[in-house]
From TrEMBL, chains A, B:
<dbReference type="GO" id="GO:0080130">
    <property type="term" value="F:L-phenylalanine-2-oxoglutarate transaminase activity"/>
</dbReference>
<keyword id="KW-0808">Transferase</keyword>
<dbReference type="GO" id="GO:0042742">
    <property type="term" value="P:defense response to bacterium"/>
</dbReference>
<dbReference type="GO" id="GO:0010588">
    <property type="term" value="P:cotyledon vascular tissue pattern formation"/>
</dbReference>
<feature type="domain" description="Alliinase C-terminal">
    <location>
        <begin position="17"/>
        <end position="373"/>
    </location>
</feature>
<protein>
    <recommendedName>
        <fullName>Alliinase C-terminal domain-containing protein</fullName>
    </recommendedName>
</protein>
<dbReference type="GO" id="GO:0080097">
    <property type="term" value="F:L-tryptophan:pyruvate aminotransferase activity"/>
</dbReference>
<dbReference type="InterPro" id="IPR037029">
    <property type="entry name" value="Alliinase_N_sf"/>
</dbReference>
<dbReference type="InterPro" id="IPR015421">
    <property type="entry name" value="PyrdxlP-dep_Trfase_major"/>
</dbReference>
<dbReference type="GO" id="GO:0052654">
    <property type="term" value="F:L-leucine-2-oxoglutarate transaminase activity"/>
</dbReference>
<comment type="similarity">
    <text>Belongs to the alliinase family.</text>
</comment>
<keyword id="KW-0963">Cytoplasm</keyword>
<dbReference type="GO" id="GO:0016846">
    <property type="term" value="F:carbon-sulfur lyase activity"/>
</dbReference>
<dbReference type="GO" id="GO:0009723">
    <property type="term" value="P:response to ethylene"/>
</dbReference>
<dbReference type="GO" id="GO:0010087">
    <property type="term" value="P:phloem or xylem histogenesis"/>
</dbReference>
<dbReference type="InterPro" id="IPR006948">
    <property type="entry name" value="Alliinase_C"/>
</dbReference>
<dbReference type="Pfam" id="PF04864">
    <property type="entry name" value="Alliinase_C"/>
</dbReference>
Length: 376, 376
């Protein structure tokens, strides 16, 4: 039997633990260790205007955030930032909708089909359906999608929920009607080897999944085409008249420290984050191995340009499967573990998505409960 | 000839001034005077989670912001907060869309008509049309609206753009299909006498127009019905997974100081704001009086419960009219003054909306240019 550390938190021992959301509280301790270096102080009269830079196409983007974003991508080598517009959003959630909106409004006919290869991020379904727009229509799984007319494919790589490396699956080189939005929320060295510098037309990133600062609601898009960037900015203006300046200033400061620490021996955040993830994945794989019931995907190793060595993947979510004919999300719920149903991700009842980014004590309680689950 | 102070800012003398947006930078000096009292310090490991209070229906609302909102409304006496849900939003812009979405999703048939009495806030048109939702449809001017079926009336009081006190104008007591969203962005004592404690079903407020902190993107809704509040929260979750915590914490601090100062002889913000607005309105009325061309609305005096005396209204926007047959927005543009066209507000070419909330030097340049405009 694998040794699972008992939770020191008595209060947790009987409570429901929520691993449905990917609330990224795992990295709190790192930021504590950084002490004052990431502290921001905002005076009463700072940041009052709607405007950050009237000469920028994205006039609500704080220049120091733009700078920090470019420097971080430069240091990590995961995405090209030259000759691109940076659009800031209230999380990449708002940006994904802004991008779908922008591409749709530039399309020749409506509704534009929106697809993603299953299993996909379940929130894409909600994001593209909740306002019942006449401009675009969620068409589900991109595998086997063959509808005529303009379409948008959402490509998440590493994929949420299953951690795999993804490319587009709808390929129609013969026409100009297909557009792709690349969601690179998890394309950072603590989760996956950085194998290339991405340079796609629309690339989405989110502060929350890099550093763990989900509460700030900051995301950004790197956009090649000026018209698309302009339409995205228009969307965000009508949707929320820009993005919190306080969050932007704080994200800028934290990303700057993150970048500086990329060159540090002892304080490299990605090294720290990778260790946490490796440790959790090893423990989880042990529990799964000891059980007769569960299964996890395997990921190929790859050479990481950032770390300069061959490394494994440690995704932010575990895509947990069961070998039995059962409803896994309900089985876990009975053990007081909330997870996201595979069906919501375009998959089946035998899979769930489980966050790997909780606080350590919560993660350990999850392992205990999983280890105690018996075959039916 | 009325004496108009010359701008001390040489750089401004020839530049375009933008009074189209209501960028509320007029109050910066007050917050400077408050010194450290409104300074917030946020450490690197603070506010990382998506969640603010898992036991609250609006789980992304910071408890200290909720507290500050209730205390401020209590001190000002402009709105009832008991037995209501507080929903926080990325500005009242996001909340208005959340409310339209919520009411529409609870309606018996679709699309739900959305109307506002002209002249109306031009952004309502964009907010209710840009996603081309099948759930609701902008039907324009509420005066004369007689379409069958469910509808939502947006009531802004004091009104944006024209500063008048508003009630609903579509009255259909015979059925249950009409819903009202009250936008009270400007129902604060520096702009208008507080004549009653409002207690409508859905009331929207925005941080930006009270204190001038537009960059924070914080608004809130006071909502009576639990189902409506729940649907609004759902909208905000899909739209942006909550609202910046940094902005919420800062808004809480500033609103708390605002409330404390309500009892101060020397530092009362509303007294300060009212003085700025009175001064600007008097100067503007002088310029308009001296011209043969322009006109401004007149507002009745009323007893203000907050100040305990009879007072005038000093709206945040001037609804400037011309007596000539001309396109006023273009005439002003030729003088390098950007304003919002009356036509965008459901009115005519002879009216424009001009922000009264700019920095002092910009306002003075506006007066100079207006004073120099001759009859055609």
């Amino acid at each position: 039997m694998v040794k699972v550390e008992n939770s020191k938190n008595i209060a947790l021992s009987d409570s429901i633990i929520n691993l449905d959301h990917g609330d990224p509280t795992a990295y709190e301790e790192y930021w504590r260790k950084m002490g004052d270096r990431c502290t921001v102080t905002i005076r009463g009269w700072d940041l009052m205007s709607y405007f950050s830079d009237v000469n920028n196409l994205c006039w609500f983007l704080e220049p120091e955030l733009a700078e920090a974003i470019k420097e971080l991508h430069g240091a990590v080598g995961n995405a090209a930032t030259e000759d691109r517009y940076i659009v800031v959003g209230t999380g990449s959630t708002q940006l994904c909708q802004a991008a779908v909106h922008a591409l749709s409004s530039l399309a020749g006919s409506h509704p534009v089909s929106v697809v993603a290869a299953a299993p996909f991020y379940s929130t894409y379904v909600e994001e593209t359906t909740y306002v019942r727009s006449g401009m675009y229509k969620w068409e589900g799984d991109a595998w086997g999608f063959d509808k005529k007319g303009p379409y948008i494919e959402l490509v998440t790589s590493p994929n949420n929920p299953d951690g795999t490396i993804r490319e587009t699956v709808v390929n129609r080189p013969e026409d100009d009607e297909g557009k792709v939005i690349h969601d690179f929320a998890y394309y950072w060295p603590h989760y996956t080897p950085i194998t290339r510098r991405q340079d796609h037309d629309i690339m989405l990133f989110t502060f929350s999944k890099i550093t763990g600062h989900a509460g700030s609601r900051i995301g950004w898009a790197l956009v090649k085409d000026k018209e698309v960037a302009k339409k995205m900015v228009e969307y965000i203006i009508v949707n929320s008249i820009g993005v919190s300046k306080e969050s932007q200033i704080r994200a800028a400061k934290i990303l700057k420290v993150l970048k500086e620490n990329c060159e540090s021996e002892s304080d490299n955040f990605f090294e720290y984050g990778r260790e946490i993830m490796r440790n959790r994945w090893e423990k989880l794989r042990e529990v799964v191995k000891e059980s007769d019931v569960f299964a996890l995907p395997k990921y190929p190793e790859a050479y990481c340009n950032f770390f300069g060595k061959t490394l494994e993947s440690y995704p932010a979510f575990a895509w947990l499967g069961t070998k039995e004919e059962t409803d896994l999300v309900s089985d876990l719920r009975r053990q007081k573990v909330m997870s996201r149903a595979g069906e919501r991700c375009g998959s089946d009842k035998k899979h769930v998505r489980v966050s790997m980014l909780s606080r350590e004590d919560v993660f350990n309680v999850f392992l205990e409960r999983l280890a105690n689950m018996k075959a039916h």
